[in-house]
């Protein structure tokens, strides 16, 4: 006789299966609409924009630079903020800006780090708040904003553009030029955010890459196109001066809501409700990048590639940290924003519903695995125990359920395909195909985060929710090592002109000649005898912040290191004509002399191949 408990679970899980399938379809329909709209729009724009003149660097550079204020809130960021500021100030292709770093009086190590950079770089200002930390991110931003008002009086100028960034961000060198070009025609500008490439098997970090690739190359483009809410990502967001003035609280004179854990989302929603002009600027630039000649050919060649003007960063690498960050986003975007009234405009309602459905879909996706595992185990069980009813019997009695399951499965595969396409756009095929197993891992993190969000939000007393500012549940940040930073440097021609070695007509003449030969600009200038080799190497050393090493000492230094190196490193160095000139075993450091510092592909290969050694690069000076 069949066990009653097993039969109980059989019928309960059958009804769960029906309910989950129905919710999968309802949830999947709005995703399907976004996908369908995107591809129809994509095909239409291929035809419509075929005669449009693309936005070029020259167009952006022609516009006079407006004064930009970058707001960077910090709490316990001493380990990353110094490197972040130095790297970005060096690589940004813009001059008229200040970076305001908001710190707390009870965070002395971060204050010390920021003040040290501020002494080195005139663009950096340390803003020490009056309130001990942590408050929350919005309160920190408000403190910085008030400081910029006082700073304007000091410099007797007014800021035209305000930009959000975090302490781990790699700012794209052309992003400020893009903001400058679009403001004040646009009130809020959001550029894409893409996590940096890391080891493909770090599924936690790649979860963010999966989501941002799809959101920032497809979903938000559709949201903007239909007139919906274009959310701020909290970094890489620019606001016109007029916008923040309109958002200012009449009593406190600050623009950012301190009652929200996701002040960026709240701010962008307020901008949309005030009918200001928001834009998602998915702008690409073309540049040449070193790549291998081919599978069967040795050496490297520069090939033109397209790249988004986008902010890059490292995201949480560990499961628990990702759950914490996701929890904060869920509380802010879903629970805290839900108390506001739904707008009348249907595109805004649709996009808000798309965001807020996560309060249910994260549960559905997570519990769906429980139901799936049950039916797999139950089906195996009935093979040995045919006296129990099978799942197929229910499908025979209710064929419409099977039709629903087919529909839900189609939507699931369609979603997986769209994600693969989106990830390939940014990271290539390997990362794209690995998104399939990551899909299940991502759902697990979201399931854990939504449970944690419900517990935290509902365990907070109602009076506290309305009366007390939520504290900053900050994620630990990491700034990447030099081996995964996108190499952006000041242009060689600009440096040569600044140094007085060439003039603009000579540079233009050399560029015309360079296009004919395909050689590097420095080689062209030397061949045309506009500059000499020694001048070129001195400028390259300055451009790439490398020390010069005399070629006359190169052979002796190589020979002294050869016998101390592992065989594999020696073989790699010989094959690529590299010179290892010093070894520091105590620090596990190698010093390698380069002939061409522009070949970032080879530099990345060197760093990966000589692990666990770290690398210090110098530049070979042939005339020493």
TrEMBL record:
Coiled coil: none annotated. It is found in: Membrane. SUPFAM superfamilies: EspE N-terminal domain-like (SSF160246), Nucleotide-diphospho-sugar transferases (SSF53448). It holds the Pfam family Glyco_tranf_2_3. The keyword Cell wall biogenesis/degradation does not apply. The chain crosses the membrane at residues 12-40, 359-380, 400-417. PANTHER family: CELLULOSE SYNTHASE CATALYTIC SUBUNIT A [UDP-FORMING]. It is a multi-pass membrane protein. GO terms for molecular function: glycosyltransferase activity. Its main location: membrane. GO terms for cellular component: membrane. This is Bacteriophage N4 adsorption protein B. The keyword Membrane applies. It comes from the Bacteria. It comes from Legionella cincinnatiensis. InterPro entries: Glycosyltr_2/OpgH_subfam, Nucleotide-diphossugar_trans, T2SS_E_N_sf. Keywords: Glycosyltransferase, Membrane, Transferase, Transmembrane, Transmembrane helix. Signal peptide: none annotated.
């Amino acid at each position: 006789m069949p066990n009653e408990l097993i039969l109980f679970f059989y019928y309960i899980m059958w009804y769960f299966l029906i309910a989950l399938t129905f919710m999968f379809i309802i949830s999947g329909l709005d995703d399907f609409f976004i996908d369908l709209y995107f591809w129809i729009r994509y095909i239409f724009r291929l035809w419509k924009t075929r005669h449009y003149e693309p936005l070029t660097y020259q167009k952006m550079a022609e516009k006079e630079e407006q004064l930009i204020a970058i707001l960077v809130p910090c709490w316990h960021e001493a380990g990353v903020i110094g490197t972040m500021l130095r790297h970005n100030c060096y690589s940004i292709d813009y001059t008229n800006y200040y970076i305001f770093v908001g710190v707390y009086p009870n965070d002395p190590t971060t204050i010390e780090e920021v003040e040290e950079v501020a002494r080195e770089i005139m663009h950096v200002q340390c803003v020490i708040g009056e309130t001990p930390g942590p408050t929350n991110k919005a309160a920190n931003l408000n403190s910085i904003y008030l400081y910029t008002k006082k700073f304007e009086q000091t410099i007797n100028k007014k800021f035209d553009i305000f930009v959000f960034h975090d302490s781990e961000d790699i700012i794209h060198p052309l992003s400020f030029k893009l903001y400058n070009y679009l403001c004040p025609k646009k009130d809020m500008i959001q550029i894409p955010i893409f996590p940096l490439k890391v080891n493909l098997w770090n599924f936690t970090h790649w979860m963010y890459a999966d989501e941002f690739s799809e959101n920032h190359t497809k979903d938000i483009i559709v949201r903007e196109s239909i007139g919906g809410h274009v959310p701020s990502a909290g970094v890489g967001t620019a606001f016109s001066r007029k916008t923040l003035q309109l958002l200012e609280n009449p009593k406190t004179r600050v623009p950012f809501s301190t009652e929200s854990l996701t002040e960026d989302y709240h701010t962008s929603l307020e901008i949309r409700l005030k009918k200001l002009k928001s834009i998602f600027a998915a702008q690409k630039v073309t540049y040449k990048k070193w790549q291998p000649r081919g599978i069967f050919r040795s050496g490297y060649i520069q090939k033109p590639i397209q790249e988004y003007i986008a902010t890059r960063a490292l995201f949480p690498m560990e499961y628990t940290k990702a759950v914490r960050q996701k929890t904060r986003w869920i509380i802010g975007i879903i629970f805290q924003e839900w108390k506001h009234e739904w707008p009348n405009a249907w595109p805004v309602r649709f996009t808000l519903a798309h965001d807020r459905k996560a309060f249910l879909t994260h549960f559905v996706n997570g519990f769906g695995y429980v139901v799936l595992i049950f039916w797999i185990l139950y089906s195996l069980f009935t093979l040995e125990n045919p006296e129990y009813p099978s799942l197929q019997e229910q499908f025979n009695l209710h064929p419409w359920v099977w039709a629903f399951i087919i529909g839900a499965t189609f939507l699931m595969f369609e979603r997986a395909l769209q994600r693969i396409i989106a990830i390939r756009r940014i990271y290539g095929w390997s990362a794209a195909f690995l998104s399939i197993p990551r899909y299940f891992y991502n759902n697990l993190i979201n399931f854990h985060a939504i449970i944690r969000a419900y517990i935290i939000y509902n365990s907070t007393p109602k009076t506290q929710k309305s009366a007390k500012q939520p504290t900053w549940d900050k994620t630990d940040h990491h700034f990447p090592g030099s081996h995964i930073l996108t190499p952006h440097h000041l242009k060689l021609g600009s440096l040569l002109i600044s140094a007085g070695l060439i003039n603009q007509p000579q540079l233009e003449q050399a560029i015309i000649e360079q296009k004919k030969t395909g050689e590097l600009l420095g080689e062209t200038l030397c061949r045309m005898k506009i500059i000499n080799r020694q001048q070129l190497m001195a400028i390259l050393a300055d451009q790439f912040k490398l020390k010069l090493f005399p070629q006359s000492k190169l052979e002796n230094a190589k020979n002294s290191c050869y016998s101390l190196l592992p065989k594999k490193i020696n073989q790699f160095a010989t094959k690529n004509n590299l010179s290892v000139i010093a070894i520091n075993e105590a620090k596990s450091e190698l010093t390698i002399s380069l002939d061409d510092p522009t070949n970032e592909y080879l530099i990345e290969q060197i760093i990966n191949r000589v692990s666990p050694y770290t690398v210090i690069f110098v530049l070979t000076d042939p005339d020493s």
